[in-house]
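Try it yourself: sequence plus P-hydroxybenzoic acid, in.
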Amino acid sequence: MLRETGVFLHADRIMRRGVVAAAALSLVLPAFAAEPVKIGMVAPFSGVAADFGKQMHAGMNAWMKIHGDTVAGRKIEVLVRDTGGPNPDVAKRLSQELVTRDKVDFLAGYGFTPEAMASAPVATEAKKPMIVMNAASSVVTTRSPYIVRFSMTLPQVSEPMAKWAAKNGIKKVYTLVTDYAPGIDAEKQFVATFKAAGGEIVDSVRTPLRNPDFGPYVQRIKDAKPDGVFIFVPAGEQSVAFMKAFEERGLAQAGIRIVATGDLTDDDVLQSMGAPVVGVITSHHYSAHHDSPENKAFVKAFHEVAPDLPRPNFMAVGGYDGMAAIAEVVKKLGNDIDGDKAMQILEQIKLTSPRGPIHIDPATRDIVQTVYIRRVQKVGDQYYNVEFDKYPDVRDPGKLGDKK
Ligand code: PHB
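Structure, out:
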């Protein structure tokens, strides 16, 4: 009996201690209990397009450098996955693993259109917001109601280029684009807008996505004697290869002007292209040279977080703004990040980006932004895309009138 009572007393003491301990814990818990916000980032980080992932990721890190890595008491954790791409099947598998195994709250990144397209059903099935930071073919956002885009679309940047060319003495154009969705989007939009403005298309050619040899294509363009050539190739490796062929075949000396989307004079590789690229006219949504306080702060933070990259390019600004949008969602939803509620917030996003004012069109979940016309110039000892004209509030013309 005595023993029983003793046992009982002991148990009671333990219980009471437990209650006190739990009460004490609950006082400190809110600071510890908040789970991190998990962002699963899918992009190439190795291979020819390694800088796609590095630029987008550095853009996200630059946002956190400026604004901190904790939002509404929750730390932001970015889980980076390398597709080695363009590699749609790998992108889909990695997206799936991030959702099912790592339980991410958001999917993000996506450099190449085919990688975004392949991953779209994963976002739909899991009801996870998918923040596209580059993939730029018009159709991408139609592939899932959970996709929202913070980059651009090729029709969106090609239309102003065609208008500008037609107004500035370029009458006959040869087009050259990469033979996949973004290139075909760019070509179609440029041709339609340029013809509507009275221009003539001499001929159009599409080059392979993998390892194109631009020499023969560029020679044919030279022989056709157009006033100008309109170009879209994926940024980076291909921009460099195209400009090399253009220079070797003497097209500038033959009086053929380049008008292109800004992918050709990508800030990531512009400096290494050197003098032959001076004077090239492009249209795009971001230049590292953009003159605004937001961009100055962004460029500074970017150099701090990514000392190995030359400067931020358009993919980095997609990463930065995508991160800003995710932070808005976390601020509003706190610990309860539900995919549908998150999409309602993302559809209303409006930001002063380092590129200028941007907002999301709720009808298409695509970005509305200023498109700049720029000319490559030497500024100090560096080559830059210097903006000299602009088209504000451009929507994706590839989707005008469309619903979700
Ligand atoms: C794309 O695949 O959507 C893409 C890739 C590189 C670019 C632009 C678009 O420079």
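One thing you can check immediately is this: The mean pLDDT is 92.
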